[in-house]
Amino acid sequence: MPTLLPPQTEFKSSDLSRASAEVFAAASDHPVTVTRRDGESLVLMTDSHDQARRKLLELAAQLIAAATDSNGTLAERMTKLFPWMLALTEEDRNTCAQQILDAARASFSTEQPHLAIAELTSWRETATAIAAGLHSTEVEWFVEMPAVERPRLSRPST
């Protein structure tokens, strides 16, 4: 059974000129450290990974502000920071607050910013849909799955 090698996370600065494709490919998947003999190591990552880290730090600052405020419940304190939560029911605001907090803790402990960002985005989009009145739309569920023809690929005409 073949074993998978862990992804390479560290490169020498000389690798940037000798094997730049390998360094950039690794940095496209995850942040990599570029070590230098004459200075401090550098971290190379994609812009999207950097933005995700920034969003997570911004969320952390907001959650710390909510957690350290002593007025009201966690959901009430978070509603001050995230006014879109007012579109949710009181029960959903409590659930939302706890799930965002749990996802943030998971993000910090696993260094996976997308967990907290996805949870926050999901709740915000839910609140937006409710505010738009989409919660009162009747949903028609299929009892049996309808038969659907397989799509045909059309070839571009020349």
Descriptive notes:
- The protein is mostly helical and 158 residues long.
- The chain folds into 2 domains: 10-44, 3-Layer(aba) Sandwich (YefM-like fold); 47-135, no CATH class.
- The chain is built from 6 helices and 3 strands.
- A 3-stranded mixed sheet has the order 1-2-3, covered by helices on one side.
- The longest helix has 22 residues, at 47-68.
- The radius of gyration is 23 Å and the shape is flat.
- The N and C termini lie far apart (48 Å).
Count of strand segments: 3
Taken in chain order, the helices and strands follow as EHHEEHHHH
Major β-sheet, in short?
A: 3 strands, mixed
Q: Would you tell me the overall average pLDDT?
A: 87
Strand order, sheet with most strands: 1-2-3
